[in-house]
Amino acid sequence: MATLEIKDLHVSVLTDDAPKEILKGVNLTVRSGETHAIMGPNGSGKSTLAYAIAGHPKYQVTSGSVQLDGEEVLEMSVDERARAGLFLAMQYPVEVPGVSMSNFLRSAATSVRGEAPQVRHWVKEVKQAMSNLDIEPGFAERSVNEGFSGGEKKRHEILQLDLLKPRFAILDETDSGLDVDALRVVSDGVNRYTEPGDKGVLLITHYTRVLNHIRPDHVHVFADGRVVESGGPELADELESSGYVRFTGKKEAAA
Ligand code: ADP
Ligand code: MG
Ligand code: MG
Q1: pTM of the model
Q2: Domain interval for residue 17
Q3: Which parts of the chain register pLDDT below 70?
């Protein structure tokens, strides 16, 4: 049983002018075995939350904490975060020319597991995981993220979940830009990952459609840099029919 606890998190983004406060006191606790959806209108600060936890240098934590079983995540290096069992898709480099996917994944696995997986087993594991995700075999030899389509990047995220099996995963808009078939493959991957019942997921999304495939235990509405309401899956159903108007006072353009 592990706990990821976000407490009164304030984050400013460093812009060319003065730093601008985006997160205004976020409180959220995710326990292993739970899937939490964070839903909110565009610009409400959802990605800022993910970047801040990933330690992105543009996002400055001005107060509050993020603790994994009482250990301060914000003081860990990116590598330590991974070893602690925290998976943040965006902590990984955007593009790494010259480094093949299979080498990249093997070194990530080495870092998380504390020892290098045996090559023969590893090749099998990767093959299996790729076939689960309908990823064509040639993918393993391509450079990390180089020329990946949006859908390929998302599959790559799920491939990492499959292989690294982190204790906690923060997935930001894993559903966006996917066609119906890809959405199903990616959702199935997330469900496979949570199936053992010991993983914690923070699923960040603007749209409700992914929640037809991944059923969250808890739903949080995010507006103007904080959680403004929390509930069960029924809250997502309400958002599906009524949108975010009740929480923002603003009508959002239809997506
Ligand atoms: P969401 O993911 O909910 O759409 P974001 O966290 O991306 O929201 O953005 C929240 C606010 O912070 C927006 O007003 C956005 O313009 C601003 N912001 C986020 N990142 C940056 C950045 N790197 N530079 C300048 N402004 C940013
Ligand atoms: Mg956005
Ligand atoms: Mg975003």
Answers
A1: 0.91
A2: 3-91+166-248
A3: 90-96, 251-255
